[in-house]
Write a structure and sequence with these properties.
Elements lengths: L6 H15 L13 H11 L4 H14 L3 H5 L3 H8 L6 H16 L8 H4 L7 H12 L8 H11 L8 H13 L8 H15 L17 H4 L17 E10 L3 E6 L10 E2 L1 E3 L8 H4 L3 E10 L4 E10 L14 E4 H6 L4 H10 L17
Parallel strand pairs: 1-6
Antiparallel strand pairs: 1-4, 2-3, 2-7, 5-6
Helix pairs in contact: 1-11, 2-3, 2-8, 8-11, 9-10, 9-11
The chain binds iron/sulfur cluster.
Iron/sulfur cluster binds next to α9 and α12.
Length: 365
């Protein structure tokens, strides 16, 4: 069969595969389709895998079953439920979007991708995913998985992350859409499932791929060359020093300002590196060890040296800054925490428990 098969054939084969082998039991796929659940899942799935999202999604809808319930929530409550999922701006945008929809759209989602993309936190691909899944609009999605699929299908030459690749793949994604709008929900799910289940970043399952006959990379035996890797530049390294003061029952944390790298989240006492005396480790009373944690942001890497300082119960740390508060472990684990702090707390907390009393699962970085 010709590589450039006609659009309907490609789409129909993909949809037929999805009906047989795709995912149908995800918690946001319940019928009748609920725009609130679809939107929530799409925001959570940005940069995060389905297996991680499911647990968070279920907790979130149990606490906020409707858009209205979410719109009435406080930012701290939302951040707290988001704790560990990372990329906290998504949670802030989620709340802003719920408030906007309630105040300006009568609590309803606009029905076109173009209008959805005007709302906080909804980019073009997320808007298309909601519009096609909920309202059957012929709108193309292009998340990371789908980009990889189309880059391989077309042997796209521009490197990953480049504007040229974006332009090429958007055009391709639009070209491949099915003709009937009532096919859009299943097609959108199918292309997402293909990227997640078959055309994976490593070891793609080309032997089980429903569209292998249209895939230029497969036909040329060059699957491992696509997508073309971005030109890597090494990110600058920044350092941070924390004093993580704790005792047998609790821990001392401080809420960040609404600006900064982790706005409104809870962190240990940050020590000014310029104020550290020579041999600073020996000057800290109760110092158990210094743990190094690395965290990657888009534009730099952060190396955190966390001094684990064990105190006597209810003895405030000497020289503690205003705002440093003590929480018992269970309370601390309910706070919105950046991933490196959550990791440190899990390491320190005697039972490493969740707020439900269950063992805490490892978090994504
Ligand atoms: Fe991806 Fe392989 Fe299918 Fe091509 S044939 S789309 S590389 S899984």
């Amino acid at each position: 069969m010709a590589v450039n098969a006609k659009r309907p054939v490609f789409a129909h084969q993909l949809m037929a595969w999805q009906r047989m082998h795709g995912r149908h039991d995800l918690p946001w796929q319940i019928k009748p389709v609920d725009p609130y659940r679809v939107w929530l899942s799409e925001i959570m799935l940005q940069q995060t895998q389905v297996t991680t999202v499911i647990e968070y999604f279920e907790r979130f809808v149990a606490r906020f079953p409707t858009l209205h319930a979410l719109a009435c929530a406080s930012e701290q409550e939302v951040l707290s439920l988001w704790s560990g999922l990372g990329y906290y701006q998504r949670a802030r945008n989620l709340l802003a979007c719920a408030k906007t929809l309630t105040a300006q759209h009568d609590g309803r989602f606009p029905e076109s991708a173009q209008q959805l993309a005007l709302l906080p936190g909804i980019g073009p691909s997320t808007a298309a995913a909601i519009a096609s899944t909920v309202f059957g609009e012929r709108a193309a999605i292009l998340d990371g998985n789908v980009k990889r699929v189309f880059a391989r299908l077309t042997c796209a030459a521009p490197p990953w992350g480049s504007p040229a690749l974006e332009r090429t793949l958007w055009a391709e994604a639009v070209k491949r859409l099915p003709e009937q709008s009532d096919q859009m929900p299943i097609y959108t799910q199918a292309i997402m499932d293909l990227g997640a289940l078959i055309c994976r970043p490593k070891n793609p399952q080309c032997g089980r791929c429903p569209v292998a006959q249209y895939c230029q990379a497969f036909q040329r035996g060059q699957v491992d060359r696509y997508p073309v890797a971005r030109v890597r530049r090494s990110l600058p390294l920044r350092k941070a020093y924390w004093a993580l003061c704790f005792d047998a029952d609790g821990i001392w944390l401080m809420q960040q300002l609404s600006s900064g790298i982790w706005p409104s989240l809870w962190l240990p006492w940050a020590i000014n590196p310029d104020a550290l005396p020579r041999g600073w480790k020996s000057t800290i009373q109760g110092l158990q060890e210094v743990v190094e944690v690395r965290h990657c942001f888009t534009h730099y890497r952060l190396l955190i040296s966390a001094a684990m300082v064990r105190l006597n119960r209810n003895t405030p740390p000497i020289g503690a800054p205003k705002g440093l508060q003590r929480f018992v472990w269970k309370e601390a684990l309910r706070l919105p925490l950046p991933t490196p702090v959550a990791r440190l707390l899990s390491r320190l907390c005697p039972a490493a428990i969740t707020t439900d009393g269950e063992p805490r699962k490892s978090r994504r970085s």
